[in-house]
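#dry-run=false #mode=assembly
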Amino acid sequence: DAKTTQPPSMDCAEGRAANLPCNHSTISGNEYVYWYRQIHSQGPQYIIHGLKNNETNEMASLIITEDRKSSTLILPHATLRDTAVYYCITNNAGNMLTFGGGTRLMVKP
Amino acid sequence: EPEVTQTPSHQVTQMGQEVILRCVPISNHLYFYWYRQILGQKVEFLVSFYNNEISEKSEIFDDQFSVERPDGSNFTLKIRSTKLEDSAMYFCASSLIRDTGELFFGEGSRLTVL
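#status=ok
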């Protein structure tokens, strides 16, 4: 799986959009981009994934650049409960996910 | 909403003892996994399981570990002779289809080896 690079931490004001970047410059053509989050040592929670096109679900939006070398997870209206570590993972091997260090997002009132 | 459940939530054991961690995956899921996270470190893949056999395993999953689906609902991780370094959160996960990174994780079992 391609290596991903994320900032170690970010802050966001409650109610504002949280934009979490991820670089995956070595991603291969058949690798998807997955986002998970982990709230205070709970189990990782799947958020969203995509291959080429931008994706949106009830939790977040995923914007993937045209060259697929980077992506951004957008939480449109962050709440205090969105405080968590967010992991960007590229994967083509199915179920064996490789978690990195992630971005620790702190949502502040 | 269906969820993966794990028991116990916390287990304390003496070094050298056997431990069994239990998981009930989402009922219609066919693929099952164990991951672990040592305190302050990354989440690490241990093993995947399908059709009553191991599909993949990592280097961490050595001979002291085993997995089993003893009945139609439970999925267990056994550690035969625990070591201090086995202290970690162990997460069970399941998925509906193969070759997807969309896994559903349980809340974890914290294992403390003294």
